[in-house]
């Protein structure tokens, strides 16, 4: 029996390509930042903390309390990794939970929402402490004795800061090397941290849509954001045609650029947008304004939901998979998710109905593609290569045209 490579996410794995880069372009500083400096930035919003839904795991009250207890015991906590923009705003790539816990305990969420001084320090209450449970369980920050408050407020943290001017692909490569809980960050976890904004909220909303969940059979594990990467991959080829894909075979850059494009929608004439396109114009294969086919996320949403619901209608339980008929169902395939969501989203209602009318003949010929060794190269481990992108989009587009 043929084996299909499957990751823990419920999606077939792809190979990766090492990309050397100019080390002279790396600008990194290691800084000591006091608790006071952290709190000031948290109040200003110059440390960007992703909303809970963008995180792999949201800590419970017990785990948060143990972090605060570590500060009370003067136990050093791990380094924070951030990316700084031109205005000195930090996007946190590693350390979100720790900074969120410090914010919730020392400042308090209600204080940050209402800016009522009476609520400052009246947030998170400690529980299940290991060393000081008898003394300080159920205490918020304001209830702690002065000596314990000072222990916390006099803490110093170590930050590794990726400075502005460091190329985006270099930032992503650096953060890819960070181990979180013993595992490296995934590419999508890094993108979600670096490109917080409309793109991250939009991906989240699509990942919860009935159309996406039904078309994938709710089989994709979400802890490492594979669901969001799949969605982003299809959006990328809707926002820009496949023929704009990098001949350097850089899928990571193509997807990252798509998040950056979505973040500046719909106003491509804004100051931020003009700067983005100006910066891109100096790159070998930078984003061109004329290549962007869609200006609004609502248009993207309609296309995506159309594509996923139509795919489910057409392929049933084997949607986005290499399996078919009565064969054992295989994992979701990234390339098939990408190409079928895009192709089906673009069909008129009449053309899609014609395809459904000819469904039996269409599926019979499509199954021959799935059994073809040569075609499988275009949807397998090296599916991120330019030639594979080109061939699967062209060949399956021609197949669809035969039956509409």
What key attributes describe this structure?
GmrSD_N, elongated, 49% helix, single chain, GmrSD restriction endonucleases N-terminal domain-containing protein, five-stranded mixed beta sheet, 404 residues, two-stranded antiparallel sheet, alpha/beta, 7 strands
Order of helices and strands: EHEHEEHHHHEHEEHHHHHHHHHHHH
Strand arrangement across the biggest beta sheet: 1-5-3-4-2
Overall radius of gyration = 24 Å
Count of distinct structural domains: 2
The number of helices is 19
Distance between the termini: 35 Å
Number of DSSP-assigned strands: 7
Low-confidence stretches: 1-6
> In this structure, how is the largest beta sheet organized?
5 strands, mixed
SS-derived structural category: alpha/beta
Beta fraction of the residues?
Answer: 5-15%
| Principal-axes shape call | elongated
Instruction: Estimate the mean pLDDT confidence.
Output: 91
Helix share of residues? 40-55%
Summarize the structure.
With 404 residues, the chain is of the alpha/beta class. It has helices at residues 35-44, 61-72, 96-107, 109-114, 133-136, 146-153, 168-176, 187-194, 198-207, 210-215, 226-239, 251-263, 271-281, 297-315, 334-345, 349-357, 359-371, 373-377, 386-402; strands spanning 28-34, 47-48, 80-84, 90-94, 156-162, 179-180, 183-184.
